[in-house]
Design brief:
5-stranded parallel β-sheet; Rossmann fold
Length: 682
C-alpha cells in the first residue's frame, strides 16, 4: 500500500422519517483525530453520519478499511454496510466497535460467528484498538500486503478470527487515562462538515462511570472509573462550536454519563453561559445528570438559567430491586429530599423509571410511582427494560437467574431502504415478564404509565394536581382511576386508551428475524413510513390526545377528581365550584394546540378565583383565599411567535410517526395557551 490507507468511519443515523439520533459523530471523530496524530499522511480518513452518503461512497470507491460504530440503534445497518463493502472490495478490512458487544466469553464467540462479515471488533474505547489495526496493516504492507496475515496473531484491544476461523481475543486494559492525548475532533477541523444545520453538536468532558448498574452497558467493570479531558480544551471546544453553529440549531448535547456531579462541572457551566452570551447558543443543553451529589448538580443547572433540566434516574424506589441491579450505592432518598430545593429554584425535574427490572412486582412498581408523585416530580417516564448487549443483565447467568420473558420490537424511526431494495430495521429486546411479574401486569402498568405521561406533564394540569394535593387526595389515585374507569370517558378518549393497549401488544415480536422478514414486504414497510406501525406508543398517543381530544381528556380528569373528592366526603358547593374553575382553566390552556386553526379558536371562561396568583403562591394557601371580588373573564391565547414555532415543528414531522417527536423539540412553556384577562364582571 504505497498510497495512504483509505479509511471510512461511520456513526450512522437513520433519517427516513426524521432523525432519531441526530448528533455529531463524536466517537468516530476521536478515533480519526487519534489516528491522524499517530500516522499522519499514511492514512486518509473520511467520516460519515448519513446512511445514504456512506452507501453512495462505498459504491463509488470502497475504502481499504471500513469502521462502523455499533449501538442498538445502528447495529443492522452497520452489518449491511459491511456486506456492501465486501461486495465492492473483497480485500476490505471491516471493523465494528462500541459498547453493543456481549460481556461473557461464550456470547462474544457467538456474536463473532453470527457476524461473519466482521473482521475485527473493538470494544469499549476505540482509539487504541483501531489504531493498532492500522499499525498492523502498515507493517504487513511493507512485506507485500495480504489480508490473511493480519489474523495470524491477536491484535491488542481487538477481537478477531485466526486463519482457521476460530475466535481470538486480545483485550487488555485499553482505556486512555490521559484523554488529552486524543486530539480534539473540533479543534482539528475534523467535525466541520457536520455543522450542516441538521445535527446537534456533542461534547464530552469525561469518560467512564463510577456506578455499576446491571442494565447499562456503562456499568461494566471494564469502564469503571472516570477520566477527564482538560478544562482549557473543553472551553476551547465550546467556543469553536459557538463560532461554527448555524442559526437553526439551538441544542448542545453533553455526552458525559454523570454531568454536574463533579466540582469542575461548575466551571464548564460558566463556559457555556459565556458562549450563550456571545453566540446566543445553546438554548437547550441535553445531558444525563449525575446520580449522586445532587446539590452540586443543582448549582450547575442554576448557572445555566433553565437551559438544562435535572434528570432523576431513579429506575426503582424499592431497596431490594436496587440491590438486584447493583444500584444501591445511588441514594434515591437523598434525591427526593432535595425536591423542595429544586422547586424553590424553579428547576424542571425529569424522572426515569424502568419497568420489569429483576425482582419487580406489580406492587413494587406501583409503590415507586406513588413515591415519585408524592415528591412532585414534574415528568415521570416509564421505560421498558431493554436487554442491551454489553450489559451484565444480558448475560446467560442473569437471564436464567431472573427468568426473563422477552419480546422484540422495532426502534421507532430506525429503518431505511437500501439501493439494492432491502429494507433494514433496527430492533431491541425488552423484558415483558418474569417469575414476579406477569405479561398482563406489564401491559396494565404500561397503560397506567400512559395516564401519568399525559396528565402529569406540567402546565396544563398543574392547577388540578395542586388542588387535589391541598385537599389530601393522593395524585396516584387520579391516574389509577383514569385507567380503571376508562368506560366512563368520552368515546374519543376510550378509543385512544384502546389504541394504546393494542399498540403495546402489537409492537411485540418473538424474534428480531421475524421482524426483518415481515417488513421486507413493501406494503408492510409502507406502514413503518406512514407511522401506522412501530411508532413510539407514549409519544404518539400523547400527541394524538393533544391533537384530537384534549378537551375531553381534561373533562375526564375533572370527573375522576370529583369522584375522589366525593369519596373523601369533603365535597361541598364551594369546593365543587373551585374544581369547575380549575377544569375550565386547564381546558383553556390545553385547547387546540396542534391543529392548523389554533389561532382562530380562543376559549373564554368566567372565573370566580384568581388561579394564576394561587399557582404562583409559595405559601400553600388554599384556592378559597384567592376568591375574586368580581368575576373575571379570561381568554386563552397563543402568541404569534409561539404558534409559528409549533407550526414549523409540526410541518417538519409526519403526523403519525413524528408528532410526538415534534413535541419533544418544542419547549413545554411554548406548547400551550396563555391566560389573558379581558374583563372584570359584577
Amino acid at each position: 500500500m504505497a498510497n495512504p490507507i483509505r479509511i471510512f468511519l461511520g456513526d450512522l443515523t437513520y433519517n427516513t422519517v426524521g432523525m432519531s439520533t441526530a448528533s455529531f459523530p463524536l466517537n468516530v471523530g476521536y478515533i480519526a483525530a487519534y489516528c491522524k496524530k499517530r500516522f499522519g499522511s499514511k492514512v486518509d480518513i473520511t467520516l460519515f453520519k448519513y446512511i445514504d452518503d456512506i452507501e453512495a461512497s462505498i459504491y463509488e470507491n470502497p475504502p481499504d478499511i471500513l469502521g462502523i460504530s455499533n449501538y442498538v440503534w445502528c447495529h443492522r445497518i452497520g452489518l449491511e454496510m459491511f456486506d456492501l463493502a465486501r461486495s465492492q472490495n473483497p480485500n476490505i478490512i471491516t471493523v465494528f466497535g462500541g459498547p453493543n458487544f456481549p460481556q461473557d466469553l461464550e456470547s462474544q464467540q457467538s456474536f463473532m460467528e453470527k457476524c461473519s462479515n466482521v473482521d475485527f471488533y473493538v470494544p469499549i474505547e476505540g482509539e487504541i484498538g483501531f489504531s493498532n489495526i492500522i499499525e498492523e496493516v502498515l507493517s504487513v504492507s511493507e512485506l507485500g500486503y495480504k489480508k490473511e496475515i493480519l489474523f495470524k496473531k491477536p491484535i491488542d484491544g481487538c477481537v478477531s478470527r485466526n486463519p482457521d476461523g476460530l475466535i481470538q481475543f486480545s483485550i487488555p486494559k485499553m482505556r486512555t487515562k490521559e484523554l488529552d492525548e486524543i486530539p480534539s475532533p473540533y479543534l482539528t477541523g475534523i467535525m466541520d462538515k457536520f455543522f450542516d444545520g441538521k445535527l446537534t453538536p456533542m461534547i464530552q468532558t469525561n469518560r467512564g462511570c463510577p456506578f455499576t448498574c446491571t442494565f447499562c452497558v456503562d456499568g461494566a467493570d471494564t469502564v469503571k472509573g472516570v477520566n477527564q479531558f482538560g478544562l482549557d480544551r473543553v472551553s476551547s471546544e465550546l467556543n469553536y462550536i459557538g463560532e461554527h453553529i448555524t442559526s437553526n440549531v439551538n441544542t448542545l448535547q453533553i455526552s458525559d454519563l454523570n454531568f454536574g456531579m463533579y466540582p469542575r462541572d461548575l466551571e464548564i457551566c460558566d463556559d457555556i453561559v459565556s458562549i450563550q452570551k456571545k453566540y446566543n447558543y445553546p438554548e437547550r443543553v441535553l445531558s444525563t445528570t449525575g446520580k449522586n451529589q445532587k446539590e452540586k448538580i443543582i448549582k450547575a443547572i442554576e448557572k445555566l438559567n433553565g437551559t438544562m433540566s435535572l434528570t432523576m434516574s431513579v429506575q426503582s424506589m424499592d431497596a431490594q430491586i436496587l440491590q438486584n441491579i447493583r444500584r444501591s450505592n445511588i441514594s434515591v432518598d437523598h434525591i427526593l429530599a432535595l425536591q423542595p430545593t429544586i422547586k424553590k429554584v424553579g428547576l424542571v425535574t425529569n424522572s426515569e423509571v424502568i419497568l420489569a427490572l429483576p425482582g419487580e412486582t406489580y406492587q413494587t412498581q406501583i409503590d415507586t410511582l406513588k413515591k415519585l408523585l408524592i415528591a412532585k416530580l414534574d415528568f415521570i417516564e416509564v421505560y421498558s427494560c431493554m436487554l442491551l448487549m454489553g450489559s451484565e443483565m444480558n448475560t446467560p447467568e442473569q437471564r436464567k437467574k431472573w427468568n426473563f420473558k422477552t419480546k422484540f420490537r422495532i426502534l421507532p424511526r430506525d429503518f431505511t431502504t437500501l439501493r439494492n431494495g432491502k429494507n433494514v430495521i433496527e430492533t431491541e429486546e425488552i423484558v415483558v415478564g418474569s417469575d414476579t411479574l406477569s405479561f398482563e401486569e406489564y401491559i396494565e402498568l404500561r397503560t397506567l404509565s400512559f395516564s401519568i405521561y399525559v396528565t402529569n406533564m406540567g402546565i396544563v394540569f398543574d392547577s388540578l394536581l395542586k388542588f387535589l394535593r391541598q385537599n389530601n387526595v393522593e395524585i396516584f389515585d387520579l391516574f389509577f382511576q383514569m385507567m380503571k374507569q376508562i368506560d366512563s370517558a368520552s368515546p374519543s378518549v376510550q378509543k385512544i386508551f384502546a389504541s394504546v393497549k393494542d399498540d403495546m401488544v402489537d409492537e411485540l415480536w418473538d424474534s428480531a428475524e421475524d421482524i426483518q422478514v415481515h417488513y421486507q414486504e413493501q406494503k408492510e414497510y409502507e406502514k413503518l413510513l406512514s407511522g401506522e406501525a412501530a411508532r413510539n406508543v407514549m409519544q404518539y398517543h400523547n400527541a394524538l390526545v393533544r391533537y384530537s381530544c384534549m378537551d375531553e381528556w381534561t373533562q375526564f380528569a375533572g370527573n375522576m377528581s370529583f369522584g375522589l373528592l366525593k369519596r373523601k366526603k369533603i365535597i361541598s358547593y364551594e369546593l365543587e365550584n373551585q374544581l369547575r374553575n380549575i377544569i375550565n382553566y386547564c381546558t383553556g390552556l390545553g385547547h387546540n394546540t396542534l391543529s392548523n386553526n389554533r389561532m382562530s379558536t380562543n376559549p373564554k371562561f368566567l372565573f370566580d378565583y384568581d388561579i394564576e396568583s394561587w399557582l404562583a403562591d409559595k405559601n400553600n394557601k388554599t384556592l378559597n383565599q384567592f376568591k375574586l371580588d368580581k368575576k373575571r373573564t379570561v381568554s386563552f391565547q397563543f402568541s404569534r411567535n409561539d404558534s409559528e414555532l409549533i407550526q414549523n415543528e409540526v410541518e417538519r414531522q409526519n403526523i403519525n410517526s413524528g408528532m410526538g417527536q415534534a413535541l419533544k423539540n418544542i419547549p413545554l412553556q411554548k406548547q400551550f395557551r396563555k391566560p389573558k384577562a379581558i374583563s372584570q364582571n359584577l
